[in-house]
Amino acid sequence: MTPVGQSTLYIPVASPPTPAPSPGLSFADLPSTNDPTASLSRRQFTLMSPEHRRRFLGSILADCTPSELLFVSSTVTPLLKRDFLRELPPELSWYILSFIDEPQTLARASCVSRYWNRLLSDDWLWKRLCTLHGFDVEQDWSPSQSPWSPEGESPTHPSYRAHFKKEYVTVSNWCHGGSLLRTHRVPLLPGSQSTHHDQPVPDETSSPPPRNNSSSPAIPTSIAIDSDWVVVGLANSKIHVFSARTGVLSRTLVGHTSGVWAVALIRGGGKPDEGGHIPTDDSLSPEPEGFTPTIRHAIGLDSPKPFHRRALSGVFSSNVPRPKPSEPSGASDGWGQPNALVVSGGCDKDVRVWDAKSGFCIYTMPGHQSTIRCLKVLHNRPIAVTGSRDRTVRVWDVRRGKMLRVLEGHEQSVRCIDVCGNIVIYTVAFDGVRIASGGLDTTVRVWDVETGTCLALLQGHTALVCQLQLTPTMLATGGSDGRVITFSLVGSSFSVIQRLAAHDSSVTALQLDDRFMVTGGNDGRVRLFQFQNDGDGEPGKCEYVRELSDPSESVWKVAFTRTTCAIAAKKAGKTVVEIWRYRPNE
Fold first, then answer.
1. Could you tell me which residues the WD repeats occupy (predicted)?
2. Which of 52, 318, 325, 329 lies 20 to 30 Å (CA to CA) from residue 266?
3. Are 524 and 555 spatial neighbours (Cβ–Cβ below 8 Å)?
């Protein structure tokens, strides 16, 4: 016991020394293969039957510690891995992979190993996917170099894998995005900011604008589009030509003295239709003179004459192959001429032929006595057909710039040149087999082109039918009631596939292909729908995907190809043309 009053004395105690680390197990301590005991054990193990070997291994594993079991597991796992595709012949591996329909699965599989990547680079797999997803390829394609081809051979054509990727991304861009190339804004009235906000959407029942060009509004009345050009005809007599690849306004075609009401676009190149001869009574008509070599080359006058001349009576002979239906985009295939051409008509009664590349007016062909309301150009033939308020249909040779024939018989204005009749029909669609017509009586009639009999009377709209399009399996109609109705053309039932309340007011634009349907309305909306095909050949229903553009006051015209979409609308009192691109950058 410490006496009272004395302080406590603390003596520091040194920590005990840390023992040296124990020596680890070295490879020298492991039994070597030269050890007689280890060698004897391995020799005895190899002589055992499979059943005894399993029992022996089981007894050893039962005596192992967890760390030893982890060592066994990490050693055995790599030995059990097998690349089943590498063990098989490539042909059998491709057959197994052909059961995979999802491109994302194949893309992930190509990241497994270099061998799998090489295996999945074969064009046969991607050609099958192109066919399965409906990604058509050019007929002159041949598969690119196979990864199993001898070294030194280079591919001469694009690969199906690259083509599938490009088309797949294009479809995805349609559904989820796309890039707005350009937005072009033009005042409705020249010299003003256009305070007129009640300008009606032009249609086939509208009267042409006044003859005074200075007061004509810049309303889009017609549109044509292909993979290279977008052509927009305006009520102020101008024609704007945009690049479909960049969206830039390439040129403005000036020459018409009144509003343009019909335009058509002829693609450059193409092949002449062997069965489509130029219908003319004068087989020895002279070549046009006075053109520069550039213009002669652009319109194909310097190319060899691929057409055999004959009388018009043989053009519609039953021996001639059935022609390709006209495209709703307003474009047609060329007959081999190098440059793209634009054909236009309007209130000045003249048909004009333009070189899209230079903007030069090649021909001005008079003949009609009133406004030209509609215009079509045949595929692979330099033949244009126009309809006018003078009640005539005229046939033109746009390669030589002359009128070939006048077809008379209509009692009133000709508003569509896909059908011949003696009554006013608001809109018509023709696919080479059937004719569909819609009118002010809210009904749609389907006619047989061979016999002229009415195959079906279709009802469903509550106002006039103003839009029609035919496909081999489907008829789509749009009305002033804002509805879009699709009918099945498989069989003879003409049953309704779907009724869509697409817009709150009149449907002003309707176009579809085998994958998408685009509609525009007077409510200022442009909507995208996607068809859901079951793969049984039957036309399927479509589902709403999204709005293709911001809302506007009204939509005037919409046209699209698989890669580009052009929208002409009214926004903030101005005419706005938007050009969207969905093809990925190459």
1. 341-364, 365-406, 407-457, 500-533
2. 318
3. yes
pLDDT for 330 equals: 87
- pLDDT of residue 46 exceeding 80: yes
What are the backbone angles phi and psi of residue 296, rounded to the nearest 5°?
A: -60, -40
Q: According to the 3-state scheme, what is the secondary structure of 401-426?
A: CEEEEEEECCCCCCCCCCCCCCCCCC
Report residue 92 CA to chain centroid gap. 34
- Three-state secondary structure of 269-298: CCCCCCCCCCECCCCCCCCCCCCCHHHHHH
Which H or E run contains 175?
helix 160-176
DSSP 208-251: PPPS-GGG----EEEEEE-SSEEEEEETTS-EEEEETTT--EEE
Q: What percent of the chain has pLDDT over 70?
A: 72
Q: Among 108-112, 114-118, 132-136, 332-336, whose mean pLDDT is lowest?
A: 132-136
The two tokens of residue 149 are 């081809």
φ, ψ at 113 (rounded to 5°):
-160, 170
**Contact by Cβ (8 Å): 560, 548:** no
What's the CA gap between 331 and 224, in Å, rounded? Answer: 6
d(CA 277, CA 299): 17
pLDDT, tens digit (0-9, with 9 covering 90-100), for 163-208: 899 999 999 999 998 899 999 998 877 655 443 334 444 554 444 5
Quote the tokens at residue 412: 């009133």
User: What average pLDDT does the structure give for the chain?
Assistant: 78
What SS3 state is found at 90?
A: helix
Q: How far is CA 48 from CA 41, 51, 54, 308, in A?
A: 11, 8, 9, 90
Phi, psi of 550 (to 5 degrees): -65, 150
> Which H/E stretch holds residue 79?
helix 66-80
Residue 380 Rama label (left phi>0; alpha psi -120 to 50; beta): left
Other beta carbons less than 10 A from residue 286's beta carbon: 7
C-alpha span between 337 and 380 (Å, rounded): 10
What SS3 class is residue 577?
strand
- The pTM of this model reads 0.74
| 486 Cβ neighbours under 8 A, 6+ residues apart | 474, 475, 476, 477, 496, 497, 498, 500, 539, 541, 542
The token pair at 425 is 């029909």
Q: How far apart are CA 74 and CA 79, in angstroms?
A: 9
Please give the pLDDT value at position 11: 55
